[in-house]
Amino acid sequence: VVQPKSQISGARDEAGVLLAVLLNPTAGTSGRRTLTAVARAAAVVDCGRTIVANLCMWPTRSVVELNGLGGRNGWDCARPALGAALVEADEVLAGWGVSGLSGPARLERDRQANWLLREMVAAGRTQIWMVGGAPRHPSRWHQYLADRHGHVTGGSFEERLRTVLQPQPA
Question: 75: closest CA among 54, 95, 60, 92?
């Protein structure tokens, strides 16, 4: 069972650490848009530092490619890194995405997300941050926050994000 660092020897980073749990490493881009959005979310939840961990260890260019890989190994191998990141984090953000996976990959993602939530609860964590109540990927937040979708209007990206980035029960 993973214990948050706030319960280990009283250690706590004054600035706070936001753990963004994403789907898998990218093999096709720099990830700059994702990391920038995660940094903005950290400011919204009053954390000064971010770390990223993935539900699956296999880097791919797309979820379509991940769908074709099958098997559990890439998912199970991610657990040690996820557990270590949970220990370091003060807050956890679900950002593994809401669409695109099918077949065995979708089942493995759901199994891994459920494992993560069980680990959080076992460690006394009661909440996980989500955009619009779902684990939307940070690289897609700009679309979700756009006026044309009507989820939120007016203000800066951070002001809009503050409106839709809310804690959900773990």
Answer: 54
User: How many angstroms separate the Cα of 166 from the Cα of each of 4, 83, 87, 120?
Assistant: 20, 23, 21, 17
Q: What is the pLDDT of residues 99-108, one digit of tens each?
A: 889 999 999 9
> CA-to-CA distance for 4 and 49, rounded, in angstroms?
16
C-alpha dihedral sign at 104, 106, 109, 110? negative
Q: Tell me, what's the pLDDT at 71?
A: 67
- Does the model's pTM come out above 0.85? yes
pLDDT in tens, 131-153: 999 999 999 999 999 999 989 98
How many CB atoms lie under 10 A from the CB of residue 54? 23
Contact of 120 with 91, CB cutoff 8 Å: no
Q: Supply the Cα-derived Rg of the chain in whole angstroms.
A: 16
Which positions ≥6 away from 4 have C-beta within 8 Å? 86, 87, 89, 90, 123, 124, 125
Buried b vs exposed e over 83-97: b needs ≥16 C-beta within 10 Å? Answer: bebbeebbbbbbbbb
Side-chain-side CA neighbours of residue 159 (13 Å): 5
